[in-house]
Amino acid sequence: MAPRTKTPQPPAPHAADSHDLIRVHGARENNLKDVSIELPKRRLTVFTGVSGSGKSSLVFATIAAESQRLINETYPAFVQGFMPSQARPDVDVLDGLTTAIIVDQQRMGSDPRSTVGTATDANAMLRILFSRLGKPHIGPPGAFAFNVPSVTASGAITVERGNKKAVKATFSRTGGMCPRCEGRGSVSDIDLTQLYDDSKSIAEGAFTIPGWKSDSWWTVRIYAESGFLDPNKPIAKFTKREMQDFLYKEPTKVKVEGSTLTFEGLIPKIQKSFLSKDREAMQPHIREFVDRAVTFATCPECEGTRLTEGARSSKIKKISIADACSMEIRDLAEWVRGLKEPSVAPLLEALQQTLDSFVEIGLGYLALDRPSGTLSGGEAQRVKMIRHLGSSLTDVTYVFDEPTIGLHPHDIQRMNDLLLRLRDKGNTVLVVEHKPEAIAIADHVVDLGPGAGTAGGTVCFEGTLEGLRASDTVTGRHLDDRAVLKDEVRKPTGALEIRGATAHNLQDVDVDIPLGVLTVITGVAGSGKSSLVHGSIPAGENVISVDQSPIKGSRRSNPATYTGLLEPIRKAFAKANGVKPALFSANSEGACPTCNGAGVIFTDLGVMASVSSPCEDCEGKRFQPSVLDYHLGGRDISEVLAMSVTEAEEFFGSGEAALPAAHKILDRLADVGLGYLSLGQPLTTLSGGERQRLKLATHMGDKGGVYVLDEPTTGLHLADVEQLLGLLDRLVESGKSVIVIEHHQAVMAHADWIIDLGPGAGHDGGKIVFEGTPADLVADRSTLTGEHLAEYVGE
């Protein structure tokens, strides 16, 4: 009889395999209300919910922030001193975290010397390649870098070794920076006719610079009494010497009425006082002056390449580094593939991998010399993904913030494949997303809400996509929403003519953009939409452009200060109480002296995160106690700033506090769907979608006839898109022309006229492939956009 075999018992699960969840308990960051949630590891989890519901607070400000903080703590205190210090998020328990890599949609630095190549290490590898293989050989990698100037020095140095003795030494370093434009590729020229009227003398008020009155200290006083110029002589009659001193003199101390002041030439003074400042942060009249007075032209010495003649003369197979950087990346990848040189094989392999990643992620149409500040939010996010695509790391948490931004429906499938590839390598992928096509690939869905701001911050649903669809949450109800084509479209009242447009990749485009209607410009990413609109529509007084550039503002800025709403409110408080308006500003005389109007006290702890605690004197209200004794309509200034837009709209709409100027601004904020924001909420706590709409609300008061909007659905939930369409309709019905660059099919279906660019990206694009109504585009189906729109509306 055969011996009976025992069925082997399965081994007991290993303790290490029990950590398959990221556990969050009691998260209270920003508007989160004690959120507790468990997220599966090595899966793709998508976070949905209306804009401002708390998605970024949970994913970025809690999970990713704590992971990064814990990693930073593993470095020595010396190294931590050079890192941004972060406080622990406001959460009770965070368990099961893995290393987080954040790929957000923050625009890349707009430094004029930052390019796609410098931001991704591709330039660094190219420089080494040319320094090894370039003929003639001109020097080390720095000789090909437009950020490195050439330096020569000579003199005596003292060597302290045994007997001290002076030794003559010379030093030189070959850099690649063009000396004329200092590596910027363009030179700025100041139009002197915009600075002064040369038929007048300084005493007669020759200056036409904003704020330079003829009786102010730095004009008449310093220029007139410096002794270098004759203040009563018309500027046109200055001698050569006087003109040189007037325009270019180095800072020189002069005595004026017993005081020592600094006299400086007009041009360096203008460069310091106006041109060194961020253009977006300037007041409108100053910005207009700068736009008039300063002209930018391609550098004549380097022809815009940013490089010295030496760097441009060294070539590999008849291609210089300037030629390589100006090629489209997909063409450059082919050129690099053709280089067979065993001595630099590892370098060629790494460079090839980086360039292929660009092509794979759909950015093959970019060139390495493209300034990084000109990339759209979606392009910047994908450029940041490049370095992670070929990574061998596993069990990492990748955190993405709306990776489908700026992507045509045709490109979304490619992005989905990349996210799934990262997950399949054994990584946890967390994605904040609004697009149904991207939500569809989730293994796990977390829906936050139910509303935005204080009405959000709770988990409304957690589970599968099918479960979300069946749930009665805002996202569940709108997931299968499909816009319908209009029965009839509006008739244009005129046309904006664009002739021979050649900016970037546009191929001599002629097009008439209809006015008085809603026009949507669409096409795959890189087809030339932004080049056509921003590069060809003259930005005159009649055109208001609301682009994706980030809002500038510190934690002291809030919706009330940013929109100009605080100005009429302060004046109303001052008038009602018979005091100065400056008392009602937390950045001026009314500020609490203990916290300087910040509402919190920061304690800097060196390498540790600085600790913030509410100010005990003003209890976080930011104002002096005496200021809070003044009331308007029964409320003090801190109570007004704590109101939501909706409450404030009612408060300033009627009764004792009726204030038409404030009410008009509040109406616009409510119009763009920001009724839930509080007036004093710091700008730094707003989500990307909220900032874009805040900017739109600010510009709605401008007196322009043509509105140009760049992807206004960025960061908007499906439910918010309906409200946006209503707003666009109201703008058109009030007599405005609205031109929208957009990929969202709901906006396309709602348009009166569509202009589709393509057929591809980069040099495969730049042509108009369709013009007409959405219904014609769907019926035609001759373009990628037509196919996707037809599928979307179910035709």
Automatic annotation (TrEMBL):
<comment type="similarity">
    <text>Belongs to the ABC transporter superfamily. UvrA family.</text>
</comment>
<keyword id="KW-0547">Nucleotide-binding</keyword>
<keyword id="KW-0677">Repeat</keyword>
<feature type="domain" description="ABC transporter">
    <location>
        <begin position="484"/>
        <end position="784"/>
    </location>
</feature>
<protein>
    <recommendedName>
        <fullName>UvrABC system protein A</fullName>
    </recommendedName>
</protein>
<keyword id="KW-0227">DNA damage</keyword>
<keyword id="KW-0234">DNA repair</keyword>
<dbReference type="GO" id="GO:0005524">
    <property type="term" value="F:ATP binding"/>
</dbReference>
<keyword id="KW-0238">DNA-binding</keyword>
<dbReference type="InterPro" id="IPR003439">
    <property type="entry name" value="ABC_transporter-like_ATP-bd"/>
</dbReference>
<keyword id="KW-0963">Cytoplasm</keyword>
<keyword id="KW-0228">DNA excision</keyword>
<keyword id="KW-0067">ATP-binding</keyword>
<feature type="domain" description="ABC transporter">
    <location>
        <begin position="16"/>
        <end position="475"/>
    </location>
</feature>
<dbReference type="InterPro" id="IPR027417">
    <property type="entry name" value="P-loop_NTPase"/>
</dbReference>
<keyword id="KW-0267">Excision nuclease</keyword>
<dbReference type="Pfam" id="PF00005">
    <property type="entry name" value="ABC_tran"/>
</dbReference>
